[in-house]
Specification:
The complex is a heterodimer of chains A (320) and B (292). Chain A has 320 residues and is an alpha+beta fold. Helix content of chain A is 28%, strand content 32%. Chain A has seven helices and 18 strands. Chain A has helices at residues 90-108, 136-145, 179-185, 237-246, 251-256, 260-273, 288-311, and strands at 6-10, 13-17, 36-40, 52-53, 57-60, 63-68, 72-77, 81-86, 112-121, 124-129, 149-152, 155-160, 166-169, 174-178, 201-205, 214-225, 231-234, 276-282. In chain A, a hairpin with a 2-residue loop joins strand 5 (57-60) and strand 6. In chain A, helix 2 crosses helix 7. The longest helix of chain A has 24 residues, at 288-311. The radius of gyration of chain A is 20 Å and the shape is globular. The model of chain A is unreliable at 315-320 (pLDDT under 50). Chain B is an alpha/beta fold. Chain B has one domain: P-loop containing nucleotide triphosphate hydrolases (Rossmann fold, 3-Layer(aba) Sandwich), CATH 3.40.50. Helix content of chain B is 48%, strand content 10%. Chain B is built from 13 helices and six strands. Chain B has a four-stranded parallel beta sheet, with helices on both faces. A two-stranded antiparallel ribbon of chain B has the order 4-5. In chain B, 44% of the residues are buried. The chains are: A alpha+beta (320), B alpha/beta (292). The interface between A and B is large, with 43 and 34 residues.
C-alpha cells in the first residue's frame, strides 16, 4: 500500500515522508528532489560491522540503526535516507524520528549537534546549552514571550559556513512545552496536541520561526545550582571547548559514525569565535524572568563592547 | 565489569559512606573534596539515560523509562572501570514488563544502609523543607516516587521508593543479588568495624591504617565544615544544608507521640528486625504514662 507523501523542511533539508511528522509541513511546493527521503519498509536486524553496538542502537560510518521498543525500528544511512519499520502509532513513530534518529542523520552530514535551544537576535543566533532538565526549553519560552524568533528547541545544528564561521541551522518549527511553561506563557490555545498521549508535554507550532541559517553570536551554558543568585561567567577558550563537547547531543553515536574528527574541528572553531558563558541559576525557585533579564543584559553589554571596539566610541546596542 | 550499588532510603548515611570510600581509595594527605565523591548517582539522571540508550527520556512515559532502565544499568556496568560504585535511592523493584530493575548481570553486590526511620523522618523533613507530618505520610506511601513528579525541570529520572519498610524489604529480601547490610547507627557507634566490613565486602585491598585515616577525613564535622566553606553541589534545594546533625536519636525530642505511632504502625516488623522498635515502644509507653 502506498501512502501520500508529506513534505517538510528542517535544518535546511528538504524531506518527504509517508508518515506525518510532529511539526508543521513545508509551505513551499515540493517540486525539487528532497535532501532526505523517509521510507517505510523492513529494517535489517543488525548492521554488518558496527563500531558501537548497544542493546538498543548500533552505528558505523554511514549507518545508524535503533530499535525503539513498541514504536519502530529505524535505519539511517549516508545522511540521506531514513528507513522506518513501524511497530506503533504514526504519531509515536514521528516523535522518536525527530529526536535521536534525526540527530544521527545530521551527524552523518557533518552537522554539529548541540544539546541546545536557540533564538534569533539582531546580531545573530544565541544558543542555550544544557543537559536534560537544565532549563533550555523554559528559558527559550521566556525569550519567545519577549518576542524573539525561535531557531531550535532541543537540538541545535551548527555548520561552518564557507568562510569558516559557525552557523546555526533552523530546526523544527515546533516547540515542545510542558504544562508549567504553557501556563506561564498563556499559550494553551495555540497547542496542537500532546507530544505523547500520556505525558504532560504539548506540541506548539511557532509562527515566529527564523527560516534562514544564522551566524552564531553567543552561547550560554545553563546549569542549576543550589545557591540563590544567578551567575554569568565568560568561559576561557579551553572551558568553552570542553563545554561544547560536553553538550554535544549523542556523543557516543558520533563516535560510532566516525564523525569525531569533523566534530572536534567544528567545535574548536566555534569555541575560538563565539563567546560562551556559563550561567548558573537557582534550581529552586527557578526565577525564569530574572534569568531572561540577565541574559538580555549580558547580550546588550556584548553588543555595546563590540560596537565600541569597532567604532572606538561608546554606542547604544540592543538585541532582539 | 559490574557495579556495587550503594543503596539506601534517602538520609540514611549514603553520602557519608561515599565520603569514607572516596578517602579510602584516594591516598592523599588531606581530605577529599565533598564535590568529587565516588559513587555518583549515574543511574538516576536523565543525562546518562539519554546518552547511553540513545533515547530522549523527556519524550518518554514513566513506564517506558522504567522498562528501559535495566538496559541502562547493564550499559553502565560495561562502561565503568572497577571499582564501580553507584549510589541509588531506588527500591529494588521490577519493571512493568517484569524484569529486575537491578539486573544480576550488572551487579557485583549491594551495600545497603538502613537507619532508624524515626531519625530518617526528622532529617528528611529538614532536607525537603516540609513538615514532619507530610514526611511521615510520604514514608508510609506505597507508591512514593522521587523526582520526575514535576512535569519539567528535573535532571533526575523518576525514582521509585515505595514505603520506608517496603524499600528495606525490596533490597534485603530479593534473594538474587548479594547484599551486605549495615545500620547507620553501627557506622556511628563503631565506624572501624562497620566501614571495615564494607571495604572487605567490596573486595578492596585491606589496610587498617588507611581506613582509620579515611574515617577521620570523612568525619562529620569535617564534612559540614567543607559544606560551609565551598558548598555541596549535590545538595537538593530547598534545604539550607545537607550535612546537618549526623547523630542517632534526635527523634526523641523532634517527634510527637502520634508521629512515632504512625511510623511504628506502618513499619513495626522491619523496625523490630533492626532493633528500632523497642525504643519506640518504650517512648510511646512513657508518653502514654506521662499523659495519663
Amino acid at each position: 500500500m502506498s501512502r501520500a507523501l508529506h513534505h517538510y523542511m528542517a535544518y535546511g533539508l528538504r524531506m518527504h515522508s509517508p508518515i506525518a511528522l510532529p511539526f508543521a509541513p513545508s509551505p513551499s511546493a515540493p517540486d525539487q528532489e528532497p535532501d532526505v527521503a523517509i521510507r517505510v519498509g523492513a529494517v535489517p536486524a543488525a548492521l554488518p560491522a558496527p563500531v558501537i553496538k548497544t542493546r538498543l542502537w548500533e552505528g558505523t560510518p554511514g549507518a545508524f540503526l535503533i530499535n525503539v521498543d513498541g514504536v519502530a525500528r529505524y535505519l539511517v544511512t549516508e545522511g540521506r535516507n531514513i528507513l522506518v519499520e513501524p511497530h506503533g502509532s504514526d504519531h509515536n513513530v514521528g516523535v522518536f524520528l525527530t529526536g535521536s534518529v534525526f540527530a544521527a542523520l545530521l551527524q552523518q552530514r557533518g552537522v554539529v549537534t548541540l544539546h541546545a535551544s536557540a533564538i534569533e537576535t539582531r546580531a545573530g543566533a544565541v544558543l542555550f546549552l544544557g543537559s536534560s532538565g537544565a532549563g533550555k526549553s523554559s528559558l527559550l519560552s521566556a525569550m519567545l514571550k519577549r518576542g524573539y524568533a525561535m531557531l531550535a528547541d532541543d537540538v541545535t545544528g551548527v555548520l561552518l559556513d564557507p568562510g569558516g564561521r559557525p552557523t546555526a541551522l533552523p530546526a523544527f518549527p515546533t516547540v515542545r512545552l510542558w504544562t508549567d511553561a504553557l501556563d506561564e506563557l498563556g499559550w494553551w490555545p495555540r497547542t496542537r496536541g500532546k507530544v505523547r498521549e500520556s505525558i504532560e508535554k504539548y506540541l506548539l507550532p511557532m509562527e515566529r520561526f527564523c527560516i534562514t541559517p544564522l551566524a552564531v553570536r553567543a552561547a550560554y551554558m545553563l546549569r542549576p545550582h543550589n545557591r540563590s543568585g544567578i551567575e554569568i561567567e565568560t568561559c576561557t577558550l579551553h572551558t568553552a571547548f570542553q563545554c561544547l563537547l560536553q553538550h554535544t547531543y549523542r556523543k557516543r553515536c558520533l563516535h560510532a559514525l566516525g564523525q569525531r574528527p569533523v566534530h572536534f574541528r567544528a567545535v574548536a572553531a566555534m569555541a575560538g569565535q563565539v563567546p560562551i558563558a556559563r550561567v548558573e541559576r537557582p534550581a529552586h525557585p527557578f526565577r525564569i524572568n530574572a534569568l531572561a533579564d540577565e541574559i538580555e543584559r549580558s547580550l546588550r553589554e556584548r553588543d555595546q563592547r563590540e560596537c565600541e571596539a569597532k567604532t572606538g566610541s561608546p554606542a547604544a546596542g540592543a538585541s532582539g | 565489569m559490574s557495579i556495587f550499588w550503594l543503596a539506601s532510603y534517602p538520609k540514611s548515611g549514603n553520602t557519608w559512606l561515599r565520603a569514607v570510600l572516596t578517602n579510602y581509595l584516594h591516598e592523599a594527605g588531606e581530605p577529599a573534596s565533598i564535590n568529587a565523591l565516588i559513587g555518583w548517582c549515574a543511574a538516576s539522571v536523565r543525562f546518562t539515560f539519554d546518552e547511553f540508550l540513545g533515547l530522549p527520556s523527556s519524550d518518554m512515559t514513566p513506564e517506558e523509562i522504567m522498562r528501559h532502565r535495566p538496559l541502562l544499568h547493564e550499559a553502565l556496568a560495561e562502561a565503568m572501570p572497577p571499582p564501580a560504585f553507584v549510589k541509588v535511592h531506588e527500591a529494588c523493584v521490577h519493571t512493568p514488563s517484569g524484569a529486575a530493575l537491578f539486573p544480576k548481570a550488572a551487579t557485583a553486590g549491594v551495600i545497603y544502609l538502613v537507619r532508624n526511620p524515626l531519625d530518617v523522618v526528622v532529617s528528611y523533613a529538614h532536607q525537603m523543607h516540609q513538615t514532619i507530618d507530610d514526611t511521615v505520610t510520604f514514608m508510609n506511601h506505597s507508591t512514593a516516587t522521587l523526582g520526575g513528579a514535576r512535569p519539567s525541570l528535573s535532571t533526575f529520572l523518576p525514582i521509585p521508593l515505595l514505603t520506608w519498610s517496603g524499600h528495606v524489604s525490596s533490597w534485603l529480601d530479593q534473594g538474587e543479588l548479594p547484599v551486605h547490610v549495615t545500620r547507620y547507627e553501627d557506622l556511628l557507634a563503631n565506624p572501624r568495624a562497620a566501614f571495615g566490613a564494607i571495604v572487605r565486602f567490596a573486595g578492596l585491598d585491606w589496610d587498617g591504617a588507611r581506613l582509620a585515616r579515611a574515617i577521620d577525613h570523612a568525619a562529620f564535622p569535617r564534612l559540614r565544615a567543607q559544606e560551609e566553606e565551598i558548598g555541596f553541589e549535590e545538595k537538593q534545594p530547598p534545604s539550607p544544608s545537607f550535612f546537618r546533625a549526623g547523630v542517632a536519636g534526635s527523634w526523641r525530642t523532634a517527634l510527637r507521640p502520634r508521629q512515632v505511632r504512625a511510623l511504628v504502625d506502618a513499619h513495626g516488623p522491619v523496625m523490630e528486625r533492626f532493633g528500632y522498635l523497642r525504643d519506640a515502644e518504650a517512648f510511646l509507653a512513657g508518653e502514654g504514662a506521662a499523659g495519663a
